[in-house]
Amino acid sequence: MDEGDFLNAWVTAIVNGWHIEEEQAKLSYESQEKGGNI
C-alpha cells in the first residue's frame, strides 16, 4: 500500500462518513418535523 492508496482510502472514508452523518441529520430533522406536526 503506497501513500497514494492510503490518501485515497482516507478521502473515501471521510466522504462516506460525511455522507452518513448528513443522512442521519436529515432523518433526525424529518422525524422532528413530523413529531412537531402532531
UniProtKB/TrEMBL annotation:
Write down what this protein is called. Answer: Uncharacterized protein
